[in-house]
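User: Sequence in, structure out. Go.
Assistant: Echoing your sequence, followed by the structure tokens.
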Amino acid sequence: MSIPWIYYEGVRYSLSEELKPESTHPAFQFCIEWLNGRTEFELQTSGSTGEPKKIKVTRPQLIASAQLTLSVLGLQPNETALVCLDTRYIAGIMMLVRALEGGLNIVLVNPSANPFESIPDSMPIDFVALVPYQVEAILKSDHGARLDTMKVVLIGGAPVSEKLKTALEPFRAAIYSTYGMTETLSHIALQRLSGAAAQKKFQALAGISLSRDERGCLIIQAPHLREAPIVTNDLVELYPGNSFRWLGRIDHVINSGGIKIFPEEIEHQLQPIFSEFGLSNRFFIMAAPDSSLGEVLMLVVEGTLDKSLQQNLLASMKQKLPAYRAPRLIETVSHFVNTETGKVNRPKTIALVRGL
């Protein structure tokens, strides 16, 4: 087995030698600490199990999570991982741990919409983790075919739209949507999106036990995490064989006339309508107060839409969705508030909308 390396900005660094912090890049700092045997790390959660907070995790926990992924995906020493997510957060950190523990080479790229713009076309990549907006940007570029040269592509950090799932179905590479969070040290379930083996539901990894609480939210028991189960705020439908379908966040649920509506489910149904109108704007569903129903659905769109387009969009949604699931109002915001990892920060964006 050859000695793994890190490639960054045209320079290749050997992992067999003590890395010197030539770069202030947090990935180099993490690798140095890992190679020097650091045993405990502090991570910032995003709020999947409650209020965002800092948690401490141990080196053995990170190693166990990495080994689980390396095993299920069949990754081998000397293969090359593209690390293009923020390595201050769990998704980027776990890509580094998988590489360091699995003997993978690392191609390090600063987070951007299309990471392939920053590396030579001749640079072979076997394994990459991306967020949906990166996949969309890659598919729109001249680098789309590169995804099909990969052994494994992971997509996480936000739900994968139905439109993107359809675009990925013909690919031969093993492309997966992931389910996980900081508290689970990255993903604990995968959903294959490509090829004949494509799945409709998430499948838990080996050793992971799933159940639901009285709210219908997912409970995760994983031997490598901690003794107490992890109780999430994610509403799910559980199926035999340790698989599940994600419905949405319980803290996003809208009660309209006594009917509970999951905004994320409506957002999936709206994707084809947006495509019909040639719209690529980001959007989400939130509650608006109503004197009769208590709450109704309001569509929040990033950018500008003229009044005529808004009326046509409302009419189309009313025609194609059941009455109680069709948004009654549209509000536009010039720019959504994003989290540090590039996701839409719903609470802050909703507060912005309510302050308009």
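User: And one key feature?
Assistant: Helices lie at 26-35, 59-73, 90-102, 132-140, 162-168, 263-276, 307-320, 346-354.
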